[in-house]
Amino acid sequence: MATSIYQHSAVDTTGQSVEFTKYTGKVLIVVNVASECGLTKPNYKQLSELYKKYRNRGLDIAAFPCNQFKNQEPLPALKVKNNVSYKYHFKPDFYEKIDVNGDNAHPIFKYLKEKTNLRNVKWNFTKFLINRQGDIIDVFGPTFQPKNMEDDIVKALETTDYVKDKKAKL
Q1: Which of 5, 13, 22, 149 has the lowest CB atom count within 10 Å?
Q2: Neighbour count for residue 147 (Cβ, 10 Å)
């Protein structure tokens, strides 16, 4: 098992393998997304606002379409990316559609769950916040509004090693 998020890679919507070393020194949100979920609009809207506000200070977002929860992501990843760009004027890094739970879970999500003691990702829009050194600050559940992550994002942007000593907000 990898000891850092930076030891992972994922395939983007163009079919290219992307090494997560590209996020070294950045504050990163890793999130599983779905187009036909009741949580879609508020999550994309608020993630977009956070991204626009803080991307120039070092915030990045890695979005992974996932169809594991009531088949709420039937679209191919590239279509999801294009729809989100058009509807929300939001262009995070989108990756191939993946599983987040079970035997076929993507290694990044296996790693994130292990590091946060999560047995399973509960639902769409589970958000993992990672500091500039690659340490997980916190995990925020599907109904936790991204705008409420802002204080943690700012603290993480202002320091290199910000971590919290709190339980996950699931």
Answers
A1: 22
A2: 12
Domains of the chain: 5-158 (3.40.30.10)
d(CA 95, CA 100): 13
Q: How confident is the model at residue 164 (pLDDT cuts 50, 70, 90)?
A: confident
Residue with tokens 């191939």: 96
Whole-number pLDDT of residue 12: 98
* 11 burial type by CB count under 10 A (0-12 exposed, 13-18 middle, 19+ buried): middle
Q: What is the pTM of this model?
A: 0.94
Contacts of 61 by beta carbon, 8 Å cutoff, 6+ apart: 28, 29, 30, 31, 47, 51, 92, 93
For 41, 61, 62, the CA distances from 102, given in Å and listed in that order, are 27, 24, 21
Contacts 24+ apart (CB under 8 A), 118-124: 118/168, 118/170, 121/32, 122/170, 123/37, 123/39, 123/69, 124/32, 124/33, 124/34, 124/37, 124/39, 124/40, 124/66, 124/69, 124/72, 124/73
